[in-house]
Amino acid sequence: MLDHVAIQVQDIAASAAFYDAVLAPLGGERKKQFGENISFGVTGHPLWLVPATDPAPARELHIAFSAADRSAVDGFYAAALSAGAEVLHAPRLWPEYHESYYGAFVRDPDGNNVEAVCHRP
Fold it and tell me: What range(s) does the VOC domain occupy (predicted)?
């Protein structure tokens, strides 16, 4: 249903470096640059980073990225740790969501709750 989402970030370079690292294990990469705006995706450009227009802190967003398998979730988590991300939840099963829900949650440089999730057993 969604074509793309844009999130405002305080530091384009820092956020782009973070998403370069954490999306690589999921098959994601930079796809397009339009002025200061940078897009990421596996195909297309569903995630855009755009400069924040308001100096006030943004409201926290939750973004969940699909992972092909559990090892990709683990790779996302390892890359996030290497990038200095705050850990919200290490990779694990979340049976309260469903029996095969395997996810890891971290904070991006702007404080957003970023997740990688695999729904496969």
Answer: 1-119
φ, ψ for residue 22, nearest 5 deg? -80, -25
Strands 86-93, 62-66: pairing is unpaired
Q: What is the per-residue pLDDT across 48-84, written as a single tens digit (0 to 9) for each?
A: 999 998 877 778 999 999 999 999 999 999 999 999 9
Name the CA radius of gyration of the chain, rounded: 14
- Identify the architecture of domain 5-52+60-118 in CATH: Roll (3.10)
Cα gap 50→10, rounded to integer Å = 9
Q: What angle do CA 58, 29, 32 make, to 5 degrees?
A: 75
11 by Cβ neighbours in 10 Å (0-12 / 13-18 / 19+) ranks as middle
The C-alpha atoms of residue 7 and residue 30 are separated, in whole angstroms, by 15
| pTM for the structure as a whole | 0.93
Domain ranges of the chain: 5-52+60-118
Which band of pLDDT confidence, cut at 50, 70 and 90, is reported for residue 2?
A: confident
